[in-house]
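Entry: Glutamate 5-kinase
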Amino acid sequence: MTERIVVKIGSSSLTSDEGGLNRERIVFFSRELAALHEAGYQVLLVTSGAVAAGFRQIGYESRPKLIHEKQAAAAVGQALLMQAYQEAFASNGPHRGIGVAQILLTRADFSNRKRISNALMTVEELLRQRIIPIINENDTVATDELKFSDNDTLSALVANLVKAKHLLILTDTDGLYTEDPRFNPHAKRIERVEQISDDIMSFAGDSGSSVGTGGMRSKIEAARVAMRGGVPAFVGRVKESGDLSLAVHGTGKGTYFDTSLHNLPMKKQWLGFHSQPQGKIIVDDGAEAALLKRGKSLLPAGVRTIEGDFHPGDVVEVVNLQHQTLGRGVVNYSAWEVQAVAGLSTTEVRRRVEVARIEVIHRDEWVSLRD
Ligand SMILES: Nc1ncnc2c1ncn2[C@@H]1O[C@H](COP(=O)(O)OP(=O)(O)O)[C@@H](O)[C@H]1O
Ligand SMILES: N[C@@H](CCC(=O)OP(=O)(O)O)C(=O)O
């Protein structure tokens, strides 16, 4: 299969603090992306910048905070953003330039299997036709509680969906530092991350600009999602011509997040990232090791207790004794049944309740969310 690359560009790289698009940067990034396209990669772009591009046109003085104002700014800005990319790509590449297409997605689209498979089919066809899909959140319809709000997570979910070879998250800093380099000029850059430990997470701060939203924290969260989906990620800066290609080839100006995991099938992506858990199962250390290290199913013997009300077939979150999330799975028992058999041996369970399957969660219906 032709290698796929998902590139995410943040507002801070495309616009200024005062709002409005920086057309020179858009032309620059489209050249960088065109070079990958010409080299034979299938390129997908996840771009922010709609709100930042639109608010000045509407007459707001700074990036709006109220949801309806942000949505109005995005509605104006999204058209400007697409127009700018369309023009920039039209003058790139051989013949008639490179074609682009707009795709707007919400979190709700990802949790609906039919909608997301339709989106994937559209993307596949665009890529076959050598068109670059340009993706943003559908800000006009995304409701506050379900919003991605920054596009970092969206780009990771897209990378998992299309089983990308790389996810490149471009921003205004050349990677993750031990502290926000704006506040500590002596902070050290981290070159490679193999596991997102609490230490790594603690380095990351909020956004440095008034137009960006996620900051480094949301980029690391996004890298975690991509890594779990078997997609290695890069977070860094692309400033000079050729930088994007360097980033793809492992010598970019930024931080690389490696993964040895395989791509997650669509069903497990849904289970891990888009399902809505109905409750929690708290398991002991033995069950934690069985699930995470030995790829086993969850048996009643390893269950300590539960939270919430759920029924067979529901998705539940599994947490350890320290309440850290281990993963999610489809449960075979109702909440009261799990509570009744918690800690019991398989023989004892069979004597007490009648269940279709002895496993509380079968390993085929389970996805680990630990690195
Ligand atoms: N530990 C850190 N290392 C690097 N940058 C950091 C760190 N903590 C916070 N930041 C800030 O995150 C900013 C990038 O995030 P953001 O402004 O949301 O960008 P974008 O618009 O590209 O998504 C950087 O400009 C930087 O100031
Ligand atoms: N969908 C929004 C993205 C919001 C945003 O600022 O994201 P980011 O710059 O990636 O932190 C937009 O296009 O303005």
